[in-house]
Amino acid sequence: MKTSEQRIQIALQKSGRLTDHSLDLLAKCGLKFTKSKDQLFCFGENMPIDLLLVRDDDIPALVGDDVCDLGIAGLNVIEEKRLDRHGNDASAQFDQVFALDFGHCRLAIAAPEDAPYDGPMSLQGARIATSYPATLNKFLTQHEVDASVVIFSGAIEIMPRLGKADFICDLVSTGSTLAANQLREVQTVLESEAVIIQTRAPLPVEKQDWINRLLQRLDGVLQVRESKYVMLHAPRSALEQIVALLPGSESPTVVPLEGAGDKVAVHAVCREYVFWETLENLKSAGASSLLVLPLEKMMV
Ligand code: ATP
Ligand code: ZN
């Protein structure tokens, strides 16, 4: 049992693509923190939660070895480290709690623009450069492909041009880096986004209670991301059609409007993006006085 009393330690990326989003998400959960002088820690001021700022590659081991209770990293890193340490054994020492809807990218195989690709069998006998050997090997085994995996970290996209590899397997989001290197994406190996993981080590009740509270708040923040609160007026006769047009809403609140005949006010939480087209369709169906408001927090 580690000595660091009852405070929750969360491992986050120190400086990179996930850092701002991770800190922003925790701030939205109500956490206020101050950074240590060496920029390695953030001390939670209003909750017993501290942040440890590290390289993203270290996060799975920090949580797996029970140094930190929680960690936020890309699924690509988490899966690679899990496979590297435990093979396909599902008993890795952390639980993936949930996906956080940022840091979207994919681990993908790319080929030189003129090279043919007709599915995984095209990789048979090829040299594939990657810094994700464990994830790539799992993919190759699943597809019964015998290829040689060239482990390389750094600018992998130059490997085919240098004659060191036939394909590469790397992270892609927009594909612009690939295009700039005359490569084209041919095969997705893993869809990734940032996820939060928790140690499997049993925790004191009070600590686990705080973690549950934090996770519930995180869930609340994620739920309202795309959600909007829509208010409108409508004739009762058009209600059925209007409710059907509201995106991702379950049962709206319908309130009579004082002195307005058969008109009612409809209030609904829409869990999907509300487009201008949706509002135009609602108006055509008889709705008026439409308001779309942002939601800040939600607890269901
Ligand atoms: P560190 O110094 O922490 O090791 P890094 O260079 O490995 O940083 P970043 O480039 O900041 O990491 O990427 C962190 C994570 O962001 C990736 O592991 C991945 O999950 C996600 N990500 C999202 N889009 C991309 C992309 N286009 N390229 C690389 N990573 C991406
Ligand atoms: Zn890294």
Quick rundown:
It is built from 8 helices and 16 strands. It is of the alpha+beta class and 300 residues long. It is globular, with a radius of gyration of 25 Å.
Report on this model:
It is a single chain. With 300 residues, the chain is an alpha+beta fold. The protein folds into three domains: 3-102 and 194-223, Periplasmic binding protein-like II (D-Maltodextrin-Binding Protein, domain 2, 3-Layer(aba) Sandwich), CATH 3.40.190; 105-191, D-Maltodextrin-Binding Protein, domain 2 (3-Layer(aba) Sandwich), CATH 3.40.190; 228-294, Alpha-Beta Plaits, CATH 3.30.70. It is 26% helix and 32% strand. The chain has eight helices and 16 strands. The strands form three sheets. It has a seven-stranded mixed β-sheet. The protein has a five-stranded mixed β-sheet with strand order 9-8-10-7-11. Helix 3 packs across helix 4. It starts with 7 loop residues before the first strand and ends in a 6-residue tail after the last strand. The model has no long low-confidence stretch (mean pLDDT 93). The structure holds adenosine-5'-triphosphate and zinc ion. Zinc ion binds next to loops.
Oligomerization state: single chain
Distance between the termini: 35 Å
Helical residue percent band: 25-40%
Mean pLDDT reading: 93
Question: Which architecture of the largest domain per CATH?
Answer: 3-Layer(aba) Sandwich
Strand % is 25-35%
Bound ligands, each once:
adenosine-5'-triphosphate, zinc ion
Shape: globular
Strands ordered across the widest β-sheet: 2-3-4-1-5-12-6
Largest sheet: 7 strands, mixed
Strand tally is: 16
Count of helix runs: 8
Structural class: alpha+beta
The level 1 CATH classification of the largest domain is Alpha Beta
Measured on Cα atoms, how large is the radius of gyration? 25 Å
CATH third-level topology of the largest domain: D-Maltodextrin-Binding Protein, domain 2
| H-E string | EHEEEHEHEEEHEEHEEHEHEEHE
Whole-number tally of structural domains: 3
CATH homologous superfamily placement of the largest domain = Periplasmic binding protein-like II
